[in-house]
Amino acid sequence: MVDILHRVGVIGSKEAVYAAITSPEQLAAWWTDDTKGDGGEGGVLKFQFVPGGFDMKVLEAKPAEHVLWEVIEGPDEWIGTHVRWDLHTEDDFTIVMFSHEGWREQVPFMNHCSTKWATYLMSMKQLVETGTGAPSPNDVQISNWH
Amino acid sequence: MVDILHRVGVIGSKEAVYAAITSPEQLAAWWTDDTKGDGGEGGVLKFQFVPGGFDMKVLEAKPAEHVLWEVIEGPDEWIGTHVRWDLHTEDDFTIVMFSHEGWREQVPFMNHCSTKWATYLMSMKQLVETGTGAPSPNDVQISNWH
């Protein structure tokens, strides 16, 4: 099992970052504009991109602290993997410790998703700090895989 | 052992990307402006940032195809790790398969470096595509760790 890891610091409160990763309206403002569902514990979030989508079961959602998703629909490589968000405060930042865990093997798609997650996390940071993110389909293009 | 993985596609030739990752002048234009040394096989590259630096021994350098660095000086967590660059062509892109391999454990600094590598790889892509990258100290700030 292998994991994608990231860390960003957002100038904003833990509550603001928690809202950015649990509210469908705010997820739509930094990840993909076609986001539906319920980001609370026990809910399912549906993220649709141009080539396909991901459904996430919200296994854990502890306000201003922690969110854990399980991928229940999407590309084969993603099914059964977990997306983990842990928030804490350092200096003036809310630190987001992010991991997309439990990939079965290091396929090239994992490299792609790692870089792509980084650019989306920067989009989330921008959203909280400035009010404007860069969600799909207006996201940063990193390669021929978009 | 755990690895950081990324993949970016650069609109440009493999030769241009190879030059961006082997020429000290070009490395200085996307990673850190204080870059010295020799990027050819057997050489040592010295990258200096504001808080510290990394020295890389160039273990392998196959023009327009592949570069492998070993970290011989720098933060404890980096010493002995390897930075691998593999280039190939897809569509109009030179695809860069990147890994920073052999971390002893998943420390928070690894999360930070993963996100930071992504933003630097985007800086390298920009440099090749537009002639202007965003090297340290004018790099994209991602958190309180810079």
Give a written overview of the molecule.
The structure is a homodimer of 146-residue chains. Chain A has helices at 14-22, 24-27, 108-130, and strands at residues 2-10, 34-37, 44-48, 53-62, 66-73, 82-90, 93-103. Chain A is an alpha+beta fold. A seven-stranded antiparallel beta sheet of chain A has the order 1-7-6-5-4-3-2. Chain A is globular, with a radius of gyration of 14 Å. Chain A starts with a strand and ends in a 16-residue tail after the last helix. The model of chain A has no long low-confidence stretch (mean pLDDT 92). The A-B interface holds A 2-9, 90-93, 95, 97-99, 106, 108, 110-112, 114-115, 118-119, 121-122, 125, 140, 142-145 and B 2-9, 90-93, 95, 97-99, 106, 108, 110-112, 114-115, 118-119, 121-122, 125, 140, 142-145. Chains A, B: Belongs to the AHA1 family.
Biggest interchain interface, per-side counts: A-B, 33 and 33 residues
Query: SSE order of chain A in H/E notation?
Result: EHHEEEEEEH
Any idea what the shape of chain A is? globular
Helix content of chain A: 10-25%
Treating each run of at least 4 consecutive H or I residues as one helix, how many helices of chain A? 3
Average residue-wise pLDDT of chain A: 92
What oligomerization state is this entry in?
homodimer
Strand content of chain A: 35-45%
How many β-strand runs of chain A? 7
First CA to last CA of chain A: what distance? 25 Å
CATH topology value of chain A: Alpha-D-Glucose-1,6-Bisphosphate, Chain A, domain 4
